[in-house]
Amino acid sequence: MSSPLTTTAASSLITTTGVTSVATATTVSVTTSTITTSSTTSSSTTSSSTTSSSTTSSSTTSSSTTSSSTTSSSTTSSSTTTSTSISGTSNNQLDTPYGITHDWSANIFYITDQNNHRVMKYLSNSTSGTVVAGNNGQGMGTTQLNYPLGVYFDSSSNSLLIVNYGAHNVVRWVLGASSWTLVVGNTGVSGSTSTLLFTPFDVTCDSMNNVYVADSGNHRLQFFFAGQSNGTTVAGITGTMGSTSTLLNQPTSIVVDAQFNIYVVDYANSRIQEFLHY
Question: Where is the composition biased (Low complexity) (predicted)?
Fold first, then answer.
């Protein structure tokens, strides 16, 4: 399987929709309103834990350019962490990075290095990272990753939840361990049942450690109670792409707030969807 990313940033149209009950996994009434922002907002700025490869690479390029129109605010106020515009396998290089998550207590960043099939750890302001997961070639084994995309740092278990795009699963890699354990999905098997995923992109958790997965190929969001592998669709309709308020088209990033509201990058529809929790 080749790299999944040929993305462009989402438009500034933010569509607010509801409403799916996460706690009961049943759909209730739906209301829709549209909010247009005054400036362009990319999908990567909405998600606190995931950055698309296209926006990551453009931010890196911006740090080395003198054009004010293409330099983002983040690059003007911070230094470049990795080697600019040069992909590679060294500890100060990345190759098509996608996801990023932050350990706030230790001020450590974890980045999925997609085409190197590994996750890198970077201390704040460091220019060289450390491999914490994968880096054993592309594969399905428990010591390998297969195009890792979304990543979520779970402070309660000092572990990373990693989306294995090419393996159609989500795995947990305890920091310091040499292998992963399966969280959801069936390694190497794609599908649309409640226990399977199809080219997932992102993962996050709520305050009760329930797991949410952007199951992109199935055009849905899957909800898994903590410790369970049988999911429930809480947004979208399995296998049905669309642009109405109840449908998704290739969701790629997901965030859950303290009230259990879900925010989704609805990539192919060029919008951000909000599904309210009741």
Answer: 36-90
Domains of the chain: 13-66+96-275 (2.120.10.30)
CA angle 189, 136, 192 (to 5 degrees): 15
Strands 232-236 and 251-256: unpaired
HEC string of 17-50 equals ECCEECCCCEECCCCEEEEECCCCCCHHHHCCCE
Q: Which two tokens stand for residue 268?
A: 């192919």
pLDDT tens for each residue of 57-82 = 333 333 333 333 333 333 344 555 56
Q: Is this structure's pTM higher than 0.70?
A: yes
Omega before 19 cis (within 30°)? yes
Report whether 205 contacts 156 (CB < 8 A): no
> In this structure, what token pair is assigned to residue 221?
């969001």
